[in-house]
Structure formats: C-alpha cells, structure tokens
Amino acid sequence: MERQSDMSLPAGKRLGHFEILEAIGAGGMGQIYKARDTRLGRDVAIKILPPELASHPGFQERFGREARIISSLNHPHICILHDIGQEEGLDYLVMEYLQGESLAARLERGPLPPGELLGLAVQVADALDSAHRAGLVHRDLKPGNIMVTPSGAKLLDFGVAKSTAAGGVASELTSSLTLTSPLTAQGAILGTFQYMAPELFEGREADARSDIFAFGAVLHQMATGQHAFEGTTQALVIASILKDTPRRLAEMAPGLPWGLQRLIDSCLVKDPEQRRQSVHDLKLELQALAEDTASGRLDAGAATDTAGALPGATVTGAVPLMGATPKAGRGGPWFATTLLLAAALA
User: Fold this and answer.
1) Residue 124 and residue 82 share a domain
2) Average per-residue pLDDT in the chain?
3) Does any domain span residue 339?
C-alpha cells in the first residue's frame, strides 16, 4: 500500500478505532499524537513511524522491535504498550497516555531538591533494572525519555533498545552500525551525545554498563541542573566524555548526601570494566539514601566523603552532607589527618 507523504495527521483523523486529537511530540523513531480509543473510551498516545524512513528495512525492524520490547515489560515505571497496527500504510504503536512533563522540561527550571531527586532516581533505576533483567539495553537513556507524572517516573522510548538475551538479535541496521559507525544512521543519532558512554564512541557494543553511564549523567543533571559533559560542538562534547571528570556536586549543589557523589562517580567511570556493573546495586543504594533523607537522618556532623568506598558498598547510618562542617569530637577525614600529623610529630 502506498504510504502517506505527509507526516502530520490532522485532528479527527482515524487509525482504526483510534481518533487523532493532537500532536504532542516526537520520539527517537516517530511522531507522537494524543488520540482517543473510541472502543474503550480512553485517551492514548500513538507513535507513528515516519513515512520517509519506513521504506528502509532497518528502520522497519527497529520499529517492530520497539513494540516487542515494550510489550515484554510489565513495570509501573515503564510506559505501557496497548496495541500495534497499520492503517493506510502507516505503522503505529498505541501506548498509555501520560499526564505530566518530561524530566528534561522539569530540569529547565533548575535542579531537583534532594527528596524529589532520590525518589525519581529510585523509580528510574527500578525500571532500568527490570529491563536489564529481561535482557534489554535501553541505549537512549536521557531526561527527554523520562516522564514525571503524578504517579512518579515513567521510562519511555525503547526505539533504540537492543536485546541481549540468548538468541536476541539486533536489527539489520543496528548490527551493521556496530561494525562500522555505531553512532549514526542516515544522519540520525542513535542515542544522545551528552549521555553516551565513552566505549560507544570507540565502536564497541552497548551493554547494561552503557545504560549505567547514561544514568550517572542523568543523575548529575538532576542534582545540578547542568550537563555532566558539555561543549559548544558535538566534537567537544565527545572529547569531554572521553577525558573530562564532571564538576563535583559539592561545588554546584552543596547540601546533597556525599553518598550520591560516590554513586555518580561509580557510574561515570570511563572504562566499562571498572564502572558499576549492576543497576540493581545502584537502586539499593539510592533507596538507602532516599530513606535516610526522608527520615531526616542527615547528620551534618558526619560530613565524610565516601568516594573511597567500594563500588558495591551500601552507605548506612547517618547520611553526610556535602559542604557540611564536622562537629567537634566527631570522626572524618579531618580528624584522621590530625591523628596522622600528631603521630608524625611525636
């Protein structure tokens, strides 16, 4: 069937029993519309594959894979897939319609307060952990793919995702890109530069650790309101990712738990072999920080930087604050240094 040449769909247009209401945005692989399910009487989001890309077999496969990936996940913080179809030559996904705003839009107003930051971070980590346990790598984790809704965070847009399960096969397009140019396809960026792990720029295969790097970059932005890696051109952004260490949270957002800095550091290690290996461990540490924050166990007297702790360790007890001044008589790096100096002079 001949495909429509005009990507824009007018209000009132029907795709099966779905009635288009308005355009609401664009994802990594298509235009998104708010629509009405006339059978069940509910609002839904419909994502349509761009006609100019639909003729490419690799893009077709990726679009179909997104449907299979989303439908295989059942998680409160992952966007639900209701249906898939084709009408008048248009391939489309029918997903739950979410009230709220993207995390990217929220961050335009500045960094998140600690309680909100940690609450959303736990939910995103839990969703990502569920995907990883199902053998799926998202590969495009960024604030624009996280919705902040009244019920919490929702992880969106698995259009760039890849199955790592036994027998899972990436699309023809993705497979060929892995061997030559893993970043682009007909000029389209696979993933977003500022959240991409260093190994992806070296032509290496994405895995769960690549998502963990992206998650660390997202956490840094949630805490500070600024990108972890910046540059005025794509080349400078890539150079920053490959060689720079982001500014410390204490310089940009004092008052956050020290444990958050250590956690972000473990995500943003350049070498994937030395990086945090499991998002499940990240979730547990974030839960501990969130619980201590909510309970008020933020002891300014225990202002100890935990950056030297083992990556898999969980911080317990009072949560030290960045920028806090230690109380007299309490331990910490300053106290330890005093003891060492005293011993040296004795």
Assistant:
1) no
2) 78
3) no
| Among 37, 91, 129, 140, the one annotated catalytic | 140
Helix (H) or strand (E) holding 248: none
Q: Among this protein's residues, is 140 annotated catalytic?
A: yes
- Residue 70 placed within a domain: yes
Q: Where are the alpha helices (DSSP H) in 194-331?
A: 198-201, 208-224, 234-243, 249-252, 258-267, 279-295
pLDDT bucket at 282, cuts 50 / 70 / 90: very high
Q: Are residues 90 and 44 in the same domain?
A: yes
> How large is the C-alpha radius of gyration of the chain?
22
Distance CA 211, CA 270 (A): 13
Query: CA-CA distances (angstroms) from residue 77 to 123, 147, 195, 221?
Result: 6, 9, 20, 20
* pTM summary value: 0.77
Instruction: Tell whether the model's pLDDT for residue 331 goes beyond 80.
Output: no
Q: Count the alpha carbons within 13 Å of 285 in the hemisphere toward its beta carbon.
A: 24
- State the pLDDT confidence band at 134, using cuts at 50, 70 and 90: confident
Q: CA-CA distance, 93 to 86, in Å (whole number)?
A: 9
